[in-house]
TrEMBL record:
<dbReference type="GO" id="GO:0003677">
    <property type="term" value="F:DNA binding"/>
</dbReference>
<dbReference type="InterPro" id="IPR012763">
    <property type="entry name" value="DNA_pol_III_sug/sutau_N"/>
</dbReference>
<dbReference type="InterPro" id="IPR008921">
    <property type="entry name" value="DNA_pol3_clamp-load_cplx_C"/>
</dbReference>
<dbReference type="GO" id="GO:0003887">
    <property type="term" value="F:DNA-directed DNA polymerase activity"/>
</dbReference>
<keyword id="KW-0479">Metal-binding</keyword>
<feature type="region of interest" description="Disordered">
    <location>
        <begin position="405"/>
        <end position="426"/>
    </location>
</feature>
<dbReference type="GO" id="GO:0046872">
    <property type="term" value="F:metal ion binding"/>
</dbReference>
<protein>
    <recommendedName>
        <fullName>DNA-directed DNA polymerase</fullName>
        <ecNumber>2.7.7.7</ecNumber>
    </recommendedName>
</protein>
<dbReference type="Pfam" id="PF13177">
    <property type="entry name" value="DNA_pol3_delta2"/>
</dbReference>
<dbReference type="InterPro" id="IPR022754">
    <property type="entry name" value="DNA_pol_III_gamma-3"/>
</dbReference>
<dbReference type="InterPro" id="IPR050238">
    <property type="entry name" value="DNA_Rep/Repair_Clamp_Loader"/>
</dbReference>
<keyword id="KW-0067">ATP-binding</keyword>
<keyword id="KW-0862">Zinc</keyword>
<dbReference type="InterPro" id="IPR003593">
    <property type="entry name" value="AAA+_ATPase"/>
</dbReference>
<dbReference type="Pfam" id="PF12169">
    <property type="entry name" value="DNA_pol3_gamma3"/>
</dbReference>
<keyword id="KW-0547">Nucleotide-binding</keyword>
<dbReference type="GO" id="GO:0009360">
    <property type="term" value="C:DNA polymerase III complex"/>
</dbReference>
């Protein structure tokens, strides 16, 4: 006989053999004993949780020769033929490959015929959500007024795709993901049956990778058994499933606790080089820190641990962190995981999350972390845990609130003219004037046009929040390896630097242009002043004044990008005519 996969050989054949789903088993068994079964059932839930197996067991219990019974005997001719899939009155129908209305009508036409040898004619329709609208309409009438000898069992992983009229005519059972304990117990039965020794930690790794699906767990177990020798070991399970060992998680968590950023990034780089997926790794890290929380808060629940163990070193590791710190780690990783879904640079997001975790201070608001460096009053907060220290903190906070209230009152009392004249708040952005001048010295129009030609593609590939930040941004000068990016306000430069917008731009721009450009950002007001100073220092002001009389060939290539804006009106006669009729202030030139 040909080899069969574990999930087929060890498929449960009775309610007693089923793992989990106790609410489904109890309801169906009570209905069988009381002879109160209905005509239509809907089994919904994740893949590999026992929907089709339960449907077959229920079909056997309905038609067993010893019925009514809560368990099929699996010895009578009817049970054996249903198990083998050869019984004429138990019809399995795959809606994924037979979704048309013609196939459904063919079934409905045979519904009215009495069973050949059983008490009930059972139709098991798998993946029922794949049926077409016409097929659902054809099935609806039969579900509404079925013959007494027919039972429909609909199975689906996506119940939200079913029409409400179908769902309302069925008894619905929601199958849940199986717990790690259920998966472990079933895998132990399989390994004991084939007489293979195993390490329990290896089974935990497989159960964690299966994510609550029995079929996935048995499939991976089958693969690991084929890979292993005389004993199923932890190393074999880690290698086949692509999971990470407890020791790596331990070392990573210890490095985070010690704030050893170099060690954290080195471990992460090693995992990435081994082919680990960043999204999967973030999920595993969340699970690991959840285990540390369990060890801290509920040490008796050892059976619920998935990636950590109850060894003494993990208990010591868990006690090195405060509960707030572990909650903070989970929160950072959860937010990072959401951001990864919209980016192709998942590794960068995970590295950033690790840096945040290494520098995380529990109980410290985000705004405080930004303002401590510039506020001596806030620097004094958070030093002493005694009463005097707390009083000092309260006094400092009251003083800050008082100052803010005074500032708000002064602003409220100021006249509109005074409010308009109030100077702009400095964003704290330091302009690299020297680097901008170096770019201007070797800037060419060709390099600038190359940047602008790829600009729309860059904006489309950035995240929405990042592209919105660059809505009014414009490349104004470019050399062979760098370009100057003008932004509307200085605060945009600061935000873009902090959230990685400019580094992401450079990464996206490189394959489009073939050059790894350095991006030098500058606010618009500063750019106008730097540009004017550069023109004056290099004696180019005469060229600016006589630009309309100067042929294009006579302009120095070094200063050509500086004159692009001035040259546009004189190069296009239509633009010149529009400016003559309406004035330069009312003409806006859009490049397509």
């Amino acid at each position: 006989m040909t080899y069969q996969a574990f999930y087929r050989v060890y498929r449960p054949q009775s309610f007693r053999e089923m793992s989990g789903q106790s609410h489904v088993k109890r309801t169906l068994q009570n209905a069988l004993l009381a002879n109160k079964t209905t005509h239509a059932y809907l089994f919904s839930g994740p893949r590999g949780t026992g929907k089709t197996s339960t449907a077959k067991i229920f079909a056997k219990a309905l038609n067993c020769e010893h019925a009514p019974t809560e368990e099929p005997c699996n010895t009578c001719a009817t049970c054996i033929s249903i198990t083998n899939g050869s019984h004429p009155d138990v019809i399995e129908f795959d809606a994924a490959s037979n979704s048309r209305v013609e196939e459904m009508r063919e079934i409905i036409e045979k519904v009215r015929f009495a069973p050949a040898s059983a008490r009930f004619k059972v139709y098991i329709i798998d993946e029922v959500h794949m049926l077409s609208t016409s097929a659902f309409n054809a099935l609806l009438k039969t579900l509404e007024e079925p013959p007494a000898h027919v039972v429909f069992i609909l199975a689906t992983t996506e119940p939200h795709k079913l029409p409400a009229t179908i769902i309302s005519r069925c008894q619905r059972f929601d199958f849940k993901r199986l717990s790690s304990i259920d998966l472990l117990e079933r895998m132990k039965i399989v390994l004991e049956d084939i007489d293979l020794q195993y390490e329990e930690q290896a089974l935990k790794v497989i159960a964690q990778s299966a994510a609550g699906g029995m079929r996935d767990a048995l499939s991976m177990l089958d693969q690991v058994v084929s890979f292993s020798g005389d004993k199923l070991t932890l190393e074999d399970a880690l290698f086949v499933t692509g999971s990470i060992s407890q020791e790596v998680f331990y070392d990573l968590a210890k490095a985070l606790g010690d704030r050893d950023i170099a060690q954290v990034l080195a471990l992460l780089e090693k995992l990435m080089s081994e082919g680990k997926d960043a999204v999967r790794l973030s999920e595993d890290l969340i699970t690991f820190f959840r285990d540390l929380l369990l060890i801290q808060t509920a040490p008796d629940l050892e059976d619920l641990l998935e990636l950590a163990s109850s060894d003494e070193k993990f208990k010591t590791l868990a006690n090195q962190f405060t509960t707030d710190t572990l909650y903070g780690y989970v929160d950072i990783l959860s937010k990072t995981q959401q951001e990864m879904r919209f980016s192709h640079h998942s590794k960068i997001y995970l590295e950033t999350a690790m840096l945040k975790m290494a520098q995380f201070a529990p109980g410290q608001p985000i705004i405080q972390a930004h303002t401590q460096a510039n506020s001596p009053q806030l620097q004094s907060i958070g030093e002493s845990p005694n009463v005097a220290g707390l009083e000092a903190k309260i006094a400092s906070l009251e003083q800050i609130v008082h100052q803010l209230q005074q500032g708000g009152q002064q602003q409220h009392n100021a006249t509109p003219a005074q409010q308009r004249q109030r100077p702009k708040v400095d964003s704290g952005m330091k302009i690299n004037v020297g680097r901008i001048q170096e770019v201007l010295k070797v800037a060419t129009k060709k390099d600038l046009q190359m940047i602008k030609s790829a600009w729309s593609d860059v904006l489309n590939q950035l995240q929405k929040s990042q592209s919105a930040l660059l809505e009014d941004a414009e490349p104004v000068a470019a050399s062979s390896n760098a370009f100057v990016l003008k932004l509307k306000q200085g605060v945009y430069c600061t935000i873009g630097t902090n959230n990685g917008t400019f580094s992401a731009m450079s990464t996206i721009l490189q394959p489009l242009t073939g050059v790894a450009y350095e991006i030098v950002v500058v606010p618009e007001d500063n750019w106008l002043k730097i540009r004017a100073d550069f023109i004056r220092q290099h004696g180019l002001d005469k060229q600016v004044h006589s630009l309309e009389e100067t042929p294009a060939d006579n302009v120095n290539e070094m200063t050509e990008p500086l004159f692009v804006e001035e040259r546009i009106p004189s190069e296009d006669p239509l633009v010149a005519k529009a400016e003559e009729l309406f004035g330069k202030g009312f003409v806006e030139i859009l490049e397509e």
